[in-house]
Amino acid sequence: MNDLAKILGIYDAKVKLKSINDHTISFYIYTDTKPHLCPHCNLYTSKVHDYRMQKIKDIPLHNKSCILFLNKRRYHCSGCGKHFYESYDFVSRYLHRTQRLTKFIAHSFYDLINIKHASIRANISTHTVYKVLGTLNNSSDRYHFIRQVYWALENVRKNVQKNMSKTLRRYY
After folding, report:
1. Which Pfam family, giving just one, matches this sequence (predicted)?
2. Which residue in 48, 65, 68, 141 is a FRET match for 18, CA 20 to 30 A apart?
3. Residues 6+ apart with CB under 8 A from 121
4. What's the structural domain count of the chain?
């Protein structure tokens, strides 16, 4: 594994630097051919059907957009005749962004920033931020949410009450 793969958090592929310009840093990502399990008939195959290049966005590096060009490999199963893509740990199926970028967007809301600032920070569109927020699991139910709001309002009431005189405090 090379140092670029360690920096990008990609452990099952090889990474080569493609180009660096004023706004973007581009990398080539490729893997070695190895037998894969067919998802349809559960037989191992190493017969390659074709290749295609997929463009994937990653976390910005040095305030520049990071673009990964993944050389995706499609296998042919001789048992059932179906074609299937190689699976990767760093990118989910049907997405054009890494899992690191999805986590980066989700963690950017810990700083209590809005959607526009999160999209600027990650160099993506606001629509992508909305899609990421839709996929996150929200574990709070209605009761706990209302309880948190009630506690917050109670703390505000107590802070305001501290600034009042004793005669006005009994009404609030």
Report:
1. DDE_Tnp_ISL3
2. 48
3. 60, 108, 113
4. 3
Q: How many CB atoms lie within 10 A of CB 34?
A: 10
162 in the same domain as 127: no
Q: Which long-range contacts (CB under 8 A, 24 or more apart) does 35-40 make?
A: 36/75, 36/84, 36/86, 36/87, 38/75, 38/77, 38/79, 38/80, 38/82, 38/84, 39/84, 40/77, 40/80, 40/82, 40/84
**90 and 69 share one domain:** yes
Is the domain of 147 the same as that of 133? no
Same domain (yes/no): 86, 106: no
Residue 55 host element (H or E)? strand 48-61
- Other CB atoms within a 10 A radius of the CB of residue 25 amount to 18
Residue with tokens 């989910």, as numbered in its chain:
92
pLDDT tens digits, 97-148 = 998 998 888 888 777 678 888 888 888 899 988 888 877 766 667 777 788 8
Query: What is the distance between the alpha carbons of residues 35 and 59, in angstroms, rounded to a whole number?
Result: 31
- What is the rounded CA–CA span in Å between residue 76 and residue 84? 7
